[in-house]
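Researcher: Sequence recovery benchmark, item below. Answer with residues only.
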């Protein structure tokens, strides 16, 4: 039985920081040697290659993803050479490989939409980045499952390098999704309530922590499972106000909850199907349900009574579209990242439970990421 190195990020921030601080110190002192260890020279004069997880056709990730040598282009005047440090395996990454995601890259393509890297070298006209900076992608489709990449300066944005590595690697998608949904759809005040399904997901855990930091109650719905009590305790430890099984939403006892907790202004739906309908039933009059995922692969059904008598608003959110809509105004993205990093530095926002996996072990990581009830996010360490 494969026993992965298991890291619960909230308990290992000091370990992560010390480990990678030492690595980065070595990097800064031996830059030339670092280039040799992470980049290989191909037969062509001056050409370099990196290791990357590529897919040449869509299909089952365990069948179509291969670890290959990929040529790196020369570093242009406005480019940066980035050594990737860590990159997660997200559901959207799996869907992109399967060909079912909204974005389908040109093939062959390198997998991965999220991750953190360190700048090793900058082009002569690069102004916003310097050697040693930590960076994450600005948009999806960059291909982060690789040891190194030559990227345009405008394709990445910097982060402080004093936050835990795993927090940085998982910052660009789920925490940003949670932040925007809590900020953009309802005017939430301290004491207000939010209800969400998929509360154990990466987005769900970020919602819990960001809401707690703002004094907002969260009603968190999860599927029943053998270890429900342990999961409930873990979510409450990071700030969840209430943790409830999906079945309990349909029972009369749920009314007792709302005697002490305000009816939610906002519902966050990452599942769809009956679960989404149940969220709508408990929204307050005039509230909003925002759908950001559809793990059940079932349509959202809105009761006519919810529209007529409760005037609920049914919305959708995709963080990739938000980033593209704000691509020409760096301030909104920068401000959001600064606030999220501040929460991380204060210990109020931690990465989800993570399993660190070496790039060579990608097959096991992909298989594990696709299993139901996966309790730890798979993180590829480069």
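Model:
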């Amino acid at each position: 039985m494969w026993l992965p190195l298991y890291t619960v990020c909230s308990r290992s921030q000091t370990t992560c920081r010390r480990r990678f601080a030492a690595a980065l110190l070595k990097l800064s002192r031996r830059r030339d040697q670092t280039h040799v260890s992470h980049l290989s020279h191909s037969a062509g004069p001056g050409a370099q290659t990196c290791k990357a997880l590529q897919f040449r056709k869509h299909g089952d990730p365990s069948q179509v993803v291969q670890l290959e040598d990929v040529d790196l282009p020369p570093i242009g005047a406005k480019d940066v050479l980035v050594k990737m440090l860590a990159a997660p395996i997200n559901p959207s990454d799996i869907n992109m490989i399967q060909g079912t995601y909204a974005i389908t890259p040109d093939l062959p393509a390198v997998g991965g939409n999220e991750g953190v890297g360190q700048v090793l070298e900058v082009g002569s006209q690069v102004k916003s980045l310097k050697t040693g900076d930590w960076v994450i992608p600005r948009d999806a489709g960059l291909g982060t499952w690789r040891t190194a990449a030559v990227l345009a300066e405008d394709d990445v944005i910097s982060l402080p390098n004093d936050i835990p590595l795993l927090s940085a690697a998982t910052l660009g998608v789920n925490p940003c999704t949670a932040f925007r949904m809590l900020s953009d759809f309802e005017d939430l005040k301290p004491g207000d309530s939010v209800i969400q399904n998929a509360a154990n997901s990466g987005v769900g855990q970020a919602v819990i922590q960001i809401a707690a930091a703002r004094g907002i109650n969260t009603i968190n719905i999860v599927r029943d499972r053998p270890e429900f009590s342990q999961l409930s305790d873990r979510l409450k430890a990071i700030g969840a106000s209430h943790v409830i099984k999906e079945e309990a939403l349909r029972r009369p006892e749920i009314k007792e909850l709302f005697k002490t907790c305000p009816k939610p202004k906002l519902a966050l739906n990452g599942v769809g199907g009956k679960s989404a309908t149940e969220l709508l039933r408990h929204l307050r009059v005039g509230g909003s349900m925002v759908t950001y995922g559809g793990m059940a692969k079932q349509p959202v059904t809105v009761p006519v009574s919810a529209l007529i008598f409760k005037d609920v608003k049914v919305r959708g959110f995709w963080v990739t579209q938000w980033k593209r809509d704000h691509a020409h105004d760096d301030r909104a993205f920068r401000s959001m990242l600064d606030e999220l990093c501040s929460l991380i530095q204060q210990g109020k926002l931690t990465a989800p439970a993570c399993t660190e996996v070496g790039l060579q072990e990608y097959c096991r990581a992909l298989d594990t990421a696709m299993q139901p009830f996966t309790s730890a996010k798979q993180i590829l360490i480069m």
